[in-house]
């Protein structure tokens, strides 16, 4: 399932493909959206924003196309009207003279007036997006102390898009590991040092994943392991998907648990449960 960094990289590709030229055609798979198709002929894409796993394609005609990839959605950018061979169902296509931006499999697609975007049910409830909003570690530290969040377990809190938008399963495990926080702990259980570390890690791990195509491990170590012949799945993360393997810091066996119905990985020694 794509997380915030993957959606932001897709948005970058779409911006690069669509911003230079007028839109020639937009087509929707869903009948209730087809009446909107003529609105976009000759329009221009002004920018592509993200809010967690949602994408907002802004046009100069006062309309925005909202989409959420959900579990299986995937954006593909190709030369104009060139479609990949796939069993996926095409849900949205935006074409200009040179490029096509194609959204497959996703079903959560809407056309909104720009003025309607802030009130959209997902957008209005979503927390800050590290890759789209101007957010600082101090802002996040203050957010940890908010009464809505400070007594909730980190394992559930980090998946709540109303807390911080864009964090998903692999980022959750990696952020907690780097912050040395046990997944059963809550912000209220943590030391100030741990909270400061978590605030920094939410930003730094997310940004690194965006800039380095999903790598959350130490970059020098990842490059070293790659040169030694390890596969990407083996050098990509600190702890995620590394059950039974040694912790990269102290050699303790990485543990896998199920938290909020999803797998989570941690080091029992580096991430000791607080008293």
Structural key phrases:
alpha+beta, 28% helix, four-stranded antiparallel beta sheet, globular, 275 residues
- Largest sheet, order of strands side by side? 1-6-7-5
Strand tally is: 10
Task: Quote the average pLDDT.
Answer: 95
Task: Output the helix-strand order.
Answer: HEEEEEEEEHHHHHHHEE
The Rg value, from CA coordinates, equals 20 Å
- Kindly name the structural category: alpha+beta
Low-confidence stretches: none
Report the β-strand fraction as a percent range: 15-25%
Q: Report on the biggest sheet.
A: 4 strands, antiparallel
Helix content: 25-40%
Overall outline: globular
Number of helices: 8
What gap, in angstroms, lies between the N and C termini? 34 Å
Explained architecture:
- By secondary structure, the protein is α+β, with helices and mostly antiparallel strands.
- The protein is built from eight helices and ten strands.
- The strands form three sheets. The protein has a four-stranded antiparallel β-sheet, with helices on one face. Strands 2-3-4-8 form a four-stranded antiparallel β-sheet, with helices on one face.
- Helix 1 (4-18) runs parallel beside helix 6, helix 3 (137-144) crosses helix 6 and helix 5 crosses helix 6.
- The longest helix is centred in the C-terminal third of the chain and has 20 residues, at 192-211.
- The chain is globular, with a radius of gyration of 20 Å.
- The chain starts with a helix and ends in a 9-residue tail after the last strand.
How do the strands and helices of this protein lay out in sequence?
Blueprint: H1 4-18, E1 25-28, E2 45-51, E3 54-59, E4 63-68, E5 74-79, E6 90-95, E7 99-104, E8 108-113, H2 121-125, H3 137-144, H4 154-157, H5 169-179, H6 192-211, H7 219-227, H8 232-235, E9 255-259, E10 262-266
Antiparallel strand pairs: 1-6, 2-3, 3-4, 4-8, 5-7, 6-7, 9-10
